[in-house]
Amino acid sequence: MPFPTYSGDIDTWSTQDFHGKVDLTVTFGGDGTILHASSLFASSDIVPPMLSFSMGTLGFLGEWKFAEYKRAFREVFMSGAAPETRNGVLEPSVPTETSEGGSGLAGWSSIRGKSMGSSRAARVLMRNRLKISMFAADGTPLSSGGVGNSSQQHLHAMNELIIHRGRDPHLAVVEVFVGGRFLTEAVGDGMIVSTPTGSTAYSLSSGGSIIHPLVSSILLTPVCPRSLSFRPLVLPAGTPITLKLSNKNRGRELEVSIDGVRRSEAMGVGMEVRVTGEEIKRSEGSWHGGVPCIVRRGGPAGEGDDGWVGGLNLLKFNYPFGEES
Amino acid sequence: MPFPTYSGDIDTWSTQDFHGKVDLTVTFGGDGTILHASSLFASSDIVPPMLSFSMGTLGFLGEWKFAEYKRAFREVFMSGAAPETRNGVLEPSVPTETSEGGSGLAGWSSIRGKSMGSSRAARVLMRNRLKISMFAADGTPLSSGGVGNSSQQHLHAMNELIIHRGRDPHLAVVEVFVGGRFLTEAVGDGMIVSTPTGSTAYSLSSGGSIIHPLVSSILLTPVCPRSLSFRPLVLPAGTPITLKLSNKNRGRELEVSIDGVRRSEAMGVGMEVRVTGEEIKRSEGSWHGGVPCIVRRGGPAGEGDDGWVGGLNLLKFNYPFGEES
Amino acid sequence: MPFPTYSGDIDTWSTQDFHGKVDLTVTFGGDGTILHASSLFASSDIVPPMLSFSMGTLGFLGEWKFAEYKRAFREVFMSGAAPETRNGVLEPSVPTETSEGGSGLAGWSSIRGKSMGSSRAARVLMRNRLKISMFAADGTPLSSGGVGNSSQQHLHAMNELIIHRGRDPHLAVVEVFVGGRFLTEAVGDGMIVSTPTGSTAYSLSSGGSIIHPLVSSILLTPVCPRSLSFRPLVLPAGTPITLKLSNKNRGRELEVSIDGVRRSEAMGVGMEVRVTGEEIKRSEGSWHGGVPCIVRRGGPAGEGDDGWVGGLNLLKFNYPFGEES
Amino acid sequence: MPFPTYSGDIDTWSTQDFHGKVDLTVTFGGDGTILHASSLFASSDIVPPMLSFSMGTLGFLGEWKFAEYKRAFREVFMSGAAPETRNGVLEPSVPTETSEGGSGLAGWSSIRGKSMGSSRAARVLMRNRLKISMFAADGTPLSSGGVGNSSQQHLHAMNELIIHRGRDPHLAVVEVFVGGRFLTEAVGDGMIVSTPTGSTAYSLSSGGSIIHPLVSSILLTPVCPRSLSFRPLVLPAGTPITLKLSNKNRGRELEVSIDGVRRSEAMGVGMEVRVTGEEIKRSEGSWHGGVPCIVRRGGPAGEGDDGWVGGLNLLKFNYPFGEES
User: Fold this and answer.
1) How far apart (Å, rounded) are the C-alpha atoms in residues D205 and C60?
2) DSSP letters along B183-226, please?
3) In the predicted structure, residue D233 carries a pLDDT above the cut 90
4) A160 in contact with D at a CB cutoff of 8 Å?
5) Which one of B290, D168, D220, D247 is at 20 to 30 Å from D108 when CA atoms are compared?
6) Does D318 touch chain C if contact means CB atoms closer than 8 Å?
7) Which residue among D228, D322, D323 sits closest to B231, beta carbon to beta carbon?
8) Can you tell me the distance from the alpha carbon of D168 to that of D172, in angstroms, rounded to the nearest whole number?
9) How many degrees, rounded to 5, is the angle at CA C155 between CA C151 and CA C159?
10) Are B217 and B236 in contact (CB under 8 A)?
């Protein structure tokens, strides 16, 4: 076989061991499995393409049914997804291919045709991530504390960062800065900083809008705010956001979670989390940033099985009143 | 004076008379005045820069207080905003200047420094518009029906397009297509297709999130939907959206409004509205699309009076509980 | 037959012609039909029992399927629902049977057993109505203006009263008084004053909570308010509520609707609507106020087919995510 | 002095020590202090009247400013609130004085005149409580586990009962039964069962409506539900509600809190909490149930300083847009 095989107990590996060695991640399971696979590359700027099979109920992130596995792998390999040319495959469908002008993002639909020619049924969806770093009250960078098993300072999230009071009976008080400027003091259960991909996860439960994954943005959604007027916000992906634990928290600690994994150490007064959207860029034929997800293209004519609309159906979006048919 | 002066009763002019002749629009009044000024260019792809003074209470769109007029005009002229070089001025602050990578939109804050050098206190914010066209049930293009006073088929909206049942006691039924694919059937008072700029207008009242004007996107917000699960959606700006009046409306007509102006003819069964985000592009030193708004930059050190944050304060965003101070 | 038969074209009758002559109203159709039947008694304090069959899709108000008509009528007649004893039947299930103390309303479930003995499958649900009167700016009482076809000043609503700007492009401004005291100025599309029965109608679309019909209360729900902090309110049923058209409306008129029927004349500046919950009382074995609805009791063991829970299912309340089973 | 004085460290007492010995509870502090004082009687059916002074910022429950203390005490004593006649004082203003008919609850305003004659400026507001009991999976009653410091099985809550996943990364799954019938399976952060008094506390943060304290009802409000369609519910106060921990929680435990105090033991799969509104009844001149709160009546003419409206102002309810005046 032309590719190396690694063996051993994956749990004993450092996640860095994967970086640069994996050409394709294949997941079997639900959204949790995909998030976990993504988290193995949380400290890396480069994430290999991900091919996800749902094994039972469909999730929002995974698109392929296991019965389709032959077609799925054929698509991947015929697309030239061999190691050395991997990145070239992703290129046509990267969302921010803005050569046609400044309007930024073309709709998912409009980029479908470019992906792999008319005979291909797969596309690559680049999911933006958050770039996260944490700092002590004195400005010292903090390690990720177990999330991502990494000593690296930058971590990435595919869904969201959450600051939450957990089981503490007192409300969390978090100062929110946007672009270096104080925006507001959030009082409540917590705060979510989410990607568009994460807009159908915890942000949705907290009242956030549903954002298409190709809208280059960051969501700021409060969790059970002690305010009648804290409407969720959507900011440009490049906006630097800082969440600082107010000294009104009086020595208490708040839980920090990244993509559903709680940081081993809670955060105390004065500590802060800085978040911004990960930059996706191309240099010398290779892509940095984002999680390239191999997604299906619909029926025989390829006329329009948009996974996002299918995901809305899973959410029972705008379900009509009345009896079951 | 080196520039021509036109006189006459503006209300008797066709809006086309303005196009190409106006180098700078100055408004005195609130958001309604700005929307009206913008609507004079609803049928044009090119909108001259807009400088807006609030005369009483501050609005969300206008940023300058009248007392600042000297500084405001000085900024405009010193920036070189003479007719022949106008577009050059806008260039540095156009949001989608993505040379630094593919992440699309840089935050408002991060582009501030580029605008006119450190000595300048003004920036240009390009507000995306919607591009709207209407069609009869047989596919014939319809004129704008009084909105924009134009026979042109494409109209532009700075805030939103609204389809509403008006005073009709029956609920509106609107079929929503996204990227050419059926998404959902909206039953309720109506539907809003909004720009990020319009996210603080009617979409906000209808429960939509607040979207920063530099997030390249289109909002789909239902008005009083007959559903528990019609969460507002945010799509990429380039997504083609079609709203079609279902034949379940049974011969009734629905009101169509663009930026607050109701189309003289209502829409009937089978008629449809097609909307997409206007493309902003540059060619030969000149910019097409969008409404260039001249906005303030804060205090003496220019350190950060972001108009958007100020607008949130006007909305009484996340207003804390308790007594008035 | 021991009862009189009236014939003729119902549409030419005054609604007063029905009052005192009808012992049982039977409706065939959906919620709209039931609302219409109820509106025929909008100007009367006494409403005969209502037996409602759904002919197609189930509604929220009607409970009987047409195939059950034999059982339904048998229940009504065996219950002694002959004209002369009609009111006695309703007594056991009137919600405010508060002999057990001051806690007010017993749950629907707890009163089920009292209704007609263990062998009966029907119950009577007394639906509270709103009592509505309108006044000119100078305090002169206004007629109902076509709603209820009545010259009487008091009208009753089973669902709600709505003040709405209709197709007017300007926002409605309504001053809200509660218990004679100014509460707030509502700015938006309009205001809803709703019964608990109406909480699943327009109030639901406008973001109101779902209130069980036996919670003695009035709902104040804004329609698309120009505010981030106008949370819906629920007040005691006896609270006097006044909605007054602010002179900020500048001569414009607002639409007034009662149970879905628009008043022929719109309301102008200074006019006001006064609303309170209709009092349900018993005197000399007869009941005044409320709409007595004959509702089903569930399966063979009568163990618990609560119509309200069934209604929630029709609303697709808390519909779980995931694929259709 | 004609009344006994107890001294000692209150924290070492059993809460039962207070019961029957306290004639008037006076609190100095915010809502938390009032909740704490109320919790001292959580295991008692009879709660002495409560007079609450705010020491700094006004809360939603306490009404008196400390500077008013002379007037407040004078009102209490002149009203005859001596120990032996205490209950007589409360009578006139008990909300469910329904002699005028079955409509149940008269508005706060309408009962104001009855309270203590026109020369009195105080009223008593009976706040309904929840009656709560907990059971093991095998049906064995559980002790309150530290909440209320009591071995008694029934506990009472003035604000709410909360079941919450706390810091557990998995969503809580709670089966909700209403009136003995399965209503729905709640999946999310948790569930709130609240009194109307508690409607401005955590339920408000979770999206619930604002319910006037005299609406005899129970609120069911989900916390961050994993559903687009879980609208908050309001049920009659007498409705038996059961929350059961689904075995889908897979052995995990959920936090249970009563009026902000977390039960020392978490709850496991199969355990359930049963809640219903406390019955308020009068027997032999004495009142059982509810928390009698002595509230202010407004200005010189007593014409209408309704504390509830004042509370809405604290919440910044329907705060108008625009600049600060």
Assistant:
1) 29
2) EEEEEEEEEEEE-SGGGGTHHHHTTPPEE-TTS-EEEEEEEEES
3) yes
4) no
5) D220
6) yes
7) D228
8) 9
9) 145
10) yes
Rg (Cα) of chain A, in Å, rounded? Answer: 20
Q: Is the Cβ of B34 closer than 8 Å to some Cβ of chain C?
A: no
* Residue C94 pLDDT exceeds 80: no
Q: Chain B contacts of A277, Cβ < 8 Å?
A: 103
Q: CA B318, CA A186: separation in Å to the nearest integer?
A: 8
D6–chain A Cβ distance below 8 A for any pair? no
User: Higher model confidence: residue C10 or residue A119?
Assistant: C10
Shortest Cα–Cα distance, A165 to chain C (Å): 24
Q: Is B205 on the interface with A (CB under 8 A)?
A: no
CB B247 within 8 A of CB A112: no
Q: How far apart are CA C211 and CA D218, in angstroms?
A: 10
CB pairs under 8 A between A and B: 255
- State the nearest Cα–Cα gap between B222 and chain D, in angstroms: 14
pLDDT, residue C127, reads: 92
Whole-angstrom distance, CA of residue A12 vs CA of residue A33: 18
pLDDT tens digit string along D206-221? Answer: 999 999 999 999 999 9
Q: Which value does ipTM take for this structure?
A: 0.84
What distance in Å separates the CA atoms of residue C10 and residue B321, rounded to the nearest whole number?
A: 56
Q: Residue ranges of the alpha helices (H) in chain C?
A: 31-39, 69-78, 86-90, 108-112, 202-205, 307-314
Q: Could you identify the residue written with the tokens 């694929």? A: C323
d(CA C295, CA A306): 45
Stated length of chain B: 325
- C224 touches D: beta carbon within 8 Å: no
Bridge partner list, C243: C176, C273
Say how far apart CA A281 and CA A41 lie, in whole Å. 17
Residues of D in contact with C231 (CB under 8 A): 204, 209-210, 317
φ, ψ of residue B61 in degrees (nearest 5) = -100, -40
H or E stretch covering A88: helix A86-90
Are the Cβ atoms of A226 and D205 closer than 8 angstroms?
A: yes
Are the Cβ atoms of A228 and D317 closer than 8 angstroms? yes
* CA separation for the pair C76, C51 (Å, rounded): 9
Q: Quote the strand ranges of chain A, DSSP E.
A: 25-28, 50-54, 64-65, 122-127, 130-135, 141-142, 155-157, 160-164, 172-178, 181-194, 210-211, 217-225, 233-236, 241-245, 255-258, 261-262, 272-277, 281-283, 286-288, 291-296
Q: How far is the C-alpha of D75 from the C-alpha of D64, rounded, in Å?
A: 12
Token pair belonging to A257:
């979670």
Full-model pTM = 0.88
Task: Please tell me the total number of residues recorded for chain C in this structure.
Answer: 325
Q: Do D103 and C280 touch (CB under 8 A)?
A: yes
Give the torsion sign (CA, C143, C147, C151, C152).
negative
Based on its alpha-carbon atoms, the radius of gyration of chain D, rounded to whole angstroms, reads 20
A319 to B239: CB separation less than 8 angstroms, yes or no: no
- Chain D residues within an 8 Å CB radius of B57: 322-323
CB contact under 8 A, B104 and A236: yes
Q: Would you call C207 and B207 a contact, using CB atoms and an 8 Å cutoff?
A: yes
Q: Greater confidence, D45 or A76?
A: D45
Yes or no, beta carbons of A320 and C316 under 8 Å apart: yes
Q: Does residue D263 contact residue D257 with C-beta atoms inside 8 Å? A: yes
> Closest to C216 (Cβ–Cβ): which among D105, D312, D320?
D105
Rounded (to 5) percent helix, strand, coil in chain B: 20, 30, 50
CB A116 within 8 A of CB A89: yes
Question: Which residue in chain C has the smallest CA separation from A323?
Answer: C314
Enumerate the residues of chain C whose CB falls inside 8 A of the CB of residue B166. Answer: 166-167
